[in-house]
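Two records follow; treat each independently.
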Amino acid sequence: MAGSQSRAQPTRLYLLAYNTTCAIIWARILFITITTLISSDVSSVYALEPWTRFAQTLAVAEILHAATGIVRSPVFTTFTQVFARSVQVWAINYAFPDVTKPSVAYPAMLLAWATADTIRYSYFAIMLADWPIPRALKWARYSLFIILYPVGISSEWWLMYNATNVAEHWAVTSIFYFFLGLYVPGSVMMYSYMLKQRRKVMALQ
């Protein structure tokens, strides 16, 4: 993940800038998703696709953060989450707009992703700035995933499944079905990791 930091000042400042930037981008996505759903129809949310793709592609840096040791996040867990989302934004949402745009699963996914990541990046930015972390933010960081993860994961799965129905090449369809099958063990791994983190953090309060 993006948060745990070494004490080297340049590294800390870089991570502070990275997490602050990501928090702002995801907060913007969350705000526009909500206001669009209130004022327009579901398909209008797809206008956020380039922003969401950009924000998620930026997260590839987190794999490097973990691999180089500037954060203490597990490399495999970080890679799994970032890779799964990167496939989603590029190979599904961007490549198959006709099935992504009208689906209610797309705004549901954005709401889950943007809420979780606005909270997560804000939490790390505050921590890196050496400010006291509000109890409400800490609770949200380690509790709301219980709801947000199932919503996000099920929405991703449904959008990818829909893409298999319109993919024109059998190789692409086969790859998508392979990824769909990986969602079960991958989801269990990520959910178990977050539950473990929640128990650890809440025990310290």
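The next record belongs to a different protein.
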Amino acid sequence: MINFIIHKLKRFAWFKRLNAKVTYELLAKKIPAKDWHFMNYGYAPNSQETQLDLPADTMQRYPLQMYHYLGAKVSMEGKQVLEVGSGRGGGARHLATYFKPASYVGLDLAQSAVDLANSLHALPNLKFIQGSAEAIPLPDSSVDIVVNVESCHAYGSVSKFLSEVKRVLKPGGHLLMVDFRNQANVENMETLQQQLQDTGMKMLEEENIGPNVIQSIEEEDNSKQERIRALVPEKWQKLFAEFAGVVGSKFYLTLKDGSRKYYRFVLQKPV
């Protein structure tokens, strides 16, 4: 009954905003940060993508790769980068370190996530601030690149978010985004594609990366299950496993049968 009520309430923008804020405030407070820097489902690269050389003991290799191969789509060196929905900050740290932007700002609705990320990831060119994706607290035309990873599905208004992205981007700036949509919902992948088209920004790349995410979930499953058992109280482990998208979860099964789509986008604001 509770799940049914929540499913119905998610049709309302106010509830989507509240649900996202409460969920990620709690996760930032309750899950030990040193063992969980990423919250995305991960990415296994295509054969034509240059393999990323990571230490054998790298934790959450696949979620890190989600950021890496998205960030590699455009040059970040010397640029002003904004990540909207930066979460625990692991992806921001990797991109700020590896691709050497002049500055990287991570924006998140959850203050606890911002505080956690600032405490974990101290770099000269990196900082985290609290704010809404639907009212980005930055000036017009102040950002070269906006990064958005598995985040906008939770926003009250995706159209407002995209309008804000276009506002803060400099002419010629880029939006790099990955996200999923359940095809059974009114707001499915076709809806997102139309919303992106309606921005007037140029679509440079659009790719279905569902198979890459499925492979990631499968290859990371053992280590993810171990972390859940180690970090999450036993009474919440089943619920958290569903949230984390382990093999056999609803997220995994709908991605596997094609009823959930997962895409990667690269857009450019007109000059």
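Discussion point: The radius of gyration is 18 Å. How would you locate this feature using only the token line?
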